[in-house]
Structures are given as C-alpha cells and as structure tokens.
C-alpha cells in the first residue's frame, strides 16, 4: 500500500497480519528517509511502529481516544491518519508538528510536549464519558521514562481508586532519552522477565480451542483476574495501584498486540497493557545508542548515520559551555554536585557524569523533585548545580520558590534552552522563566551576553551564598577563551555607546546585546546599549543615570513582555517618581508556534528590522 494513499485507520482495518507487517516495514523505511532530511524524534518513533499499527487497527479514532504521552512518538499515527505527505515540513514553520496537534487532525485528541500528562488527561476523559453515559475507549500510551514522573503516579493513584474503564498502554523500552533511571526500572525489569502474557495467551488459546470463540474472549476476560492471580506472581507496581495488568507483550509482534488489545478493550475497568519495545528498532545506529544521541536528531546521512550539520569550528553549544565550566569547577570544589531531570544528553552533562560519577544525579523526569533534592543538598553544605530546560522548569516553580528561594539556599540553576527554541514549538519555547522567576525574593538571576561573561557568571554563582539562576539559549556560542572579564558585581549592568552623541538608551540582555550594539555602531545610530545582565537585582545606579539623562529608553526583549524585564524597569521608574519616556518590545500575549527563530521573531514583530524602526522613531 502506498503510504500517501492512507487517509484514515479505516484503510488498514481489512489487512492481514502479513500485510500489516509489510506496512510496518514500509513505515520504518519512510521514517528513516524522511527524518534524515528534516530531523525529528527518530528513535522513539521507530520503536512504536507495530504498536501504533495495532492500536489504530483495534481502536476507532477519533471516537476512541487513543493518544501518546509527550507525543514525540506519534509519527506512525500521523501516517495512518492521512499525513504522510506533510512529513517534508515536519517541525518547520507552518508545517507538521513533532507532537500530536488537534488542529492537524481529528484523530489527535490530546496535545502535549511535556511528559506524563496522559494518565491524568485519560482519567478526565473517562470520567466525562461516564457522566455523559457515553461509550468509547480511552487509551493513553505512556513510555517508561514518562511513567516514572510524579504526575503519572498521582494519576495512577486516582485511576486505581476511580476504577474507570481505560486501557493504559505502557510502552517499555527501558529508555528515557538516555537509559531510564530510578528504582521503578527494577520493577519494570522484573515484569519484563515474567511470563505473564504467555500464561494469559495459553488460557485464551485453551478457551478458543474448545471452539467457544464468542465465549472464549469473555471467559478469558472473566478469568483474567484469576489467571493473573494464579499464573503471574508479579503484577508489579500496577497491581499495587489496584490496576489489572496484562503483559509483558512483544511490542513488535502485531498479531499478539492485536490480540491483547482486543481483550483489554473489553475489560470493564482500568487495565495496563505492558508492551516491550526496542527504541530505534530497525535502524542500527539508533538501536545501539544508549546515550540518547538518536532520541531527537537533526538531518543526517542515513547510510552512515553522520549528522549533516556539525557545530562550526570555534563555536560550542551553550549547554556544553555551562556544563563543562561547572565540571571544571567541581574538580577543585568537591561540594559541587550536578543534577539533571532526565536531560544528561540535552544539557551536555556526560563529561560531569564521567568525571564525578558520585556527584552526578539523573533523577528522571522529575523536575519538582530535582529542585527540592537540590535544596536538600544545599542545606547540608553542598553546592548543587541544577541544569534544567526553561520550559521544564515551569513544573518546578513551587519548589524553586518554596524550597530553594524561601530558605535562601545556594543552589545554582542553569536554565537551558531559554528563549525561542524553534522546532519543538509552543510547548518548549523557554520564554516564560523571566516572568515567573523575577518576582522571587533572594534569587539572583542573570544571563550572560557571550561565553566569557557567562563563564564569569557561573564562577560568581558558585562563589556566593544565595540561590543563583543563569539562563542561556539553545544553540551555539562563539568559544572566546578570553577570561579577563572584569570581576562582576552582583546586580551590575554595563553600557556601550555607539556614537559620541547618543540620543537614546537601548536596554537588553543575552545575545541581543552584541547583535544590537554591532548594528548601531556600524550604522552610527546614536544610542547607548545597556547589557542588563542581571534581572534580579537590577542596577539601580544605572537606572538612575538613565533617568537623569532625560533621553528616551527602548527595552528590547525576545521573551514574554508580560512580567518581563521591561515591566520591572517601568515599575522602578514609577516607584521612584521618575518621569522617563520608556517603550518596550517583547513577545505579546500569544503562544508561539514552531519555526525558525528568525521567522518567528519577524512574525512576533521583534526582529532586528522592527527594532530599528522602533528605535528610529524614538530618536
Ligand atoms: C516535563 C518534561 N521533562 C522532560 C522532557 C524531555 N523528554 C522528552 S521525551 C523524554 C523521555 C521520555 O521517555 P519515554 O516516556 O520512555 O519515551 P521514549 O522516548 O522512550 O519512547 C524526555 C525526558 C519533557 N518532554 N517533559
Ligand atoms: C520531546 C522532548 O521534550 C525532547 O526530546 C526535546 O525535543 C529535546 O529538545 P532538544 O533536542 O533541543 O534537546
Ligand atoms: Mg522509554
């Protein structure tokens, strides 16, 4: 079958198992070829090809609510719901989303991007169904990495209590982005090694062999509980949560998957179907990867597995700059401990983990726990470094407030992927952290404009005794080794005059500082650029000097305007009764879609041209 001809799962319902297997092989070839051009979450998607075929074969979306946790592994579902032709646009501006998207298809019934929301959402859907006296299946598909998160546990706790009908498909590949961690993995490993599904299959076969097909399934269902009790010693953590358990099932055997899903579908309560898959199945470089290099990839050569775009010589990923600097500091300060919530690869912490294994902690997808764990270390005399993506930090807001800042504990937080992130889109843009963290007392909060200043800020952070957050963007930075950055006083800003007759102030931060200053200097546009490298505390002497100059001010931000630096500056002028003409640029009240950063900035009215227009009007 031509993948481009598939319009909905109805098109595969009459296929034989052999045909479905051929379809799986075709989809795998398609995914490897297509993602080699666009980039995307290759390994996770290769792992669930058969599982998704079986799900879309057994259930009837959109009536049945089949959906994927995180959603990064929903590519086969996209193909089976008529979207194969859109893959060349994957994760691009106006293109196919890398996650499920309701605006893309009626077959996408839930959206995410952040992990471990599926079980709570499923319970909501199941309760609503029952209150409406409706009848449809609710089928969340959740991976072992996402299952380890607190939110998933909170949901399981209520699901096992509410006992609403749903099929929880537990996709266990023993991998999060890198190797999965946590005590739960022992529990899953025990289940993986058990013979539960084979016992169940035998009992099903027995009933079917007695030529009681219609009643066979019913009898198996009825007996499932007993069969589990008699034959399966271990229903794992799921049994403890009062849930029925079926598994483990070979997640690459379409026949078995269809059989078990058909049975689970009829069960009148919550049942977990434990499916064992191989992350990266069918493409050796992915199958052999245990570090997570193939979890999310850029364009690559499918024959060699080599990336098409390397980091340019003389540049370094921002994450590596931060993690390596902390790693070097940890060489001579054994109080320094590194923590990551499941992002060793993304945050470039491999070197720290190799060099200081006893002081490096991957705590799984558990941002809340990671922050309070850091607080516990800090209150006990350690100097924790918490590396966390800006958008995932949102999960840990209360812990950063209640446990770190309130007790004024010296945790250093490296806020990765701050700002627009491009292809992951609206769930992942790191544009809210300034708005949510700026108001926290005790927190020293900064962003360096370049590599040397960022390194100096990291050293400063570890040399003082308060919570200290430093944000940095996704992407790469020029690897300037220059270390003669003058000592940085906490809360100090710096300024650069473009001409000797400047007529305005431009207040900005991060990489915008040099970009804007170069533009003004080259074009002799008379404005002074202020590097507002601390959001908290702000440089009050500089603010007073700006007010005293009676020149207009333009605050330029590439993060959310609401709650951003500009609003704090305006409030400071108002509080000090200073009459300053001040204007603000930043991201307005919208969710920002996926796309190249330059394109997004253009649409948001915050690109360099928009900035120059606005500044020229001020001059
Ligand atoms: C709250 C949150 N933290 C971190 C991430 C980054 N992340 C995306 S997928 C993933 C691993 C998920 O593992 P699993 O659920 O087992 O899925 P798999 O990729 O193995 O299929 C992580 C850590 C995220 N999306 N959301
Ligand atoms: C799905 C998810 O949340 C992660 O895989 C994320 O896409 C990682 O982003 P980077 O590839 O930018 O590290
Ligand atoms: Mg997994």
Automatic annotation (TrEMBL):
Molecular-function GO term, any one: magnesium ion binding
Cofactor annotation comment: Binds 1 Mg(2+) ion per subunit. Binds 1 thiamine pyrophosphate per subunit.
GO BP: isopentenyl diphosphate biosynthetic process, methylerythritol 4-phosphate pathway; terpenoid biosynthetic process; thiamine biosynthetic process
Cofactor or coenzyme needed: Mg(2+); thiamine diphosphate
Coiled-coil ranges from the UniProt annotation: none
CDD domains assigned: TPP_DXS, TPP_PYR_DXS_TK_like
UniProt pathway: Metabolic intermediate biosynthesis; 1-deoxy-D-xylulose 5-phosphate biosynthesis; 1-deoxy-D-xylulose 5-phosphate from D-glyceraldehyde 3-phosphate and pyruvate: step 1/1
Domain Transketolase-like pyrimidine-binding residue range list: 316-479
SMART domains: Transket_pyr
Keywords, ordered alphabetically: Isoprene biosynthesis, Magnesium, Metal-binding, Thiamine biosynthesis, Thiamine pyrophosphate, Transferase
List of residues binding Mg(2+): 144, 173
Catalytic activity: D-glyceraldehyde 3-phosphate + pyruvate + H(+) = 1-deoxy-D-xylulose 5-phosphate + CO2
Record-linked InterPro entries: Dxylulose-5-P_synthase, THDP-binding, Transketo_C/PFOR_II, Transketolase-like_Pyr-bd, Transketolase_C, Transketolase_CS
Function comment: Catalyzes the acyloin condensation reaction between C atoms 2 and 3 of pyruvate and glyceraldehyde 3-phosphate to yield 1-deoxy-D-xylulose-5-phosphate (DXP).
Subunit text: Homodimer.
Protein name: 1-deoxy-D-xylulose-5-phosphate synthase
Native species: Grylomicrobium aquisgranensis
Gene assigned in the entry: dxs
């Amino acid at each position: 079958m031509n993948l481009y001809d598939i319009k909905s799962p109805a098109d595969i319902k009459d296929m034989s198992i052999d045909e479905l297997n051929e379809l799986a092989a075709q989809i795998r070839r398609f995914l490897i070829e297509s993602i080699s051009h666009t980039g995307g979450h290759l390994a996770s998607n290769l792992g669930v090809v058969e599982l998704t075929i079986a799900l879309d074969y057994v259930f009837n979306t959109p009536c049945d609510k089949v959906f994927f946790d995180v959603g990064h592994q929903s590519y086969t579902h996209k193909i089976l719901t008529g979207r194969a032709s859109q893959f060349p646009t994957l994760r691009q501006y106006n293109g196919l989303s890398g996650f499920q998207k309701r605006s893309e298809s009626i077959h996408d019934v839930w959206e995410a991007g952040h992990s471990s929301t599926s079980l709570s959402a499923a319970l909501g859907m199941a309760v609503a169904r029952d209150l409406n006296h409706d009848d449809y299946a609710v089928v969340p598909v959740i991976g072992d990495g996402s299952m380890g998160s607190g939110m998933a546990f909170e949901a399981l706790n209520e699901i096992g209590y509410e006992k609403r009908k749903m099929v929880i498909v537990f996709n266990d590949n023993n991998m999060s982005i890198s190797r999965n961690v946590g005590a739960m993995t022992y529990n899953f490993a025990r289940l993986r090694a058990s013979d539960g599904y084979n016992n169940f299959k035998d009992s099903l076969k027995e009933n079917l062999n007695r030529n009681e097909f219609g009643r066979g399934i019913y009898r198996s269902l009825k007996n499932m509980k007993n069969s589990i009790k008699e034959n399966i010693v271990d229903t794992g953590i799921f049994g403890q949560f009062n849930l029925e358990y079926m598994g483990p099932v070979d997640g690459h055997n379409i026949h078995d998957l269809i059989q078990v899903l058909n049975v689970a579908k009829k069960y009148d309560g919550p049942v977990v179907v434990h499916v064992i898959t191989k992350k990266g199945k069918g493409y050796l470089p992915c199958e052999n990867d245990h570090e997570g290099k193939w979890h999310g990839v850029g364009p690559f050569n499918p024959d060699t597995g080599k990336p098409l775009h390397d980091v340019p010589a003389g540049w370094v990923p921002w994450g590596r700059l931060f993690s390596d600097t902390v790693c070097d500091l940890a060489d001579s300060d054994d109080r320094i401990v590194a923590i990551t919530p499941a992002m060793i690869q993304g945050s470039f912490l491999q070197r720290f983990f190799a060099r200081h294994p006893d002081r490096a902690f991957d705590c799984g997808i558990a941002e809340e726990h990671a922050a309070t764990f850091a607080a516990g270390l800090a209150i006990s005399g350690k100097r924790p470094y918490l590396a966390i993506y800006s958008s995932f930090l949102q999960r840990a807001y209360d812990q950063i407030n209640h446990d770190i800042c309130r007790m004024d504990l010296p945790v250093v937080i490296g806020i990765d992927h701050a700002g627009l992130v491009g292809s992951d889109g609206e769930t992942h843009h790191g544009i809210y952290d300034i708005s949510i963290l700026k108001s926290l007392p005790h927190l020293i909060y900064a962003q360096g404009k370049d590599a040397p200043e960022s390194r100096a800020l990291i050293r400063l952070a570890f040399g003082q005794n308060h919570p200290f957050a430093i944000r940095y963007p996704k992407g790469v930075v020029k690897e300037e080794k220059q270390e003669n950055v003058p000592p940085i006083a906490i809360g100090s800003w710096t300024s650069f005059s473009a001409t000797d007759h400047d007529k305005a102030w431009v207040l900005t931060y991060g990489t915008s500082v040099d970009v804007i200053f170069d533009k003004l200097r080259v074009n002799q546009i008379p404005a002074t650029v202020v590097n507002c490298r601390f959001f908290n505390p702000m440089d009050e002497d500089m603010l007073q000097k700006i007010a005293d100059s009676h020149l207009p001010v333009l605050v330029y931000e590439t993060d959310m305007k609401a709650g951003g630096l500009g609003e704090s500056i305006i409030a400071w002028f108002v509080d000090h009764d200073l009459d300053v003409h001040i204007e603000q640029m930043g991201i307005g009240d919208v969710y920002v879609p996926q796309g190249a950063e330059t394109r997004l900035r253009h649409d948001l009215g915050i690109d360099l041209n928009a900035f120059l227009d606005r500044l020229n009007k001020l001059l």
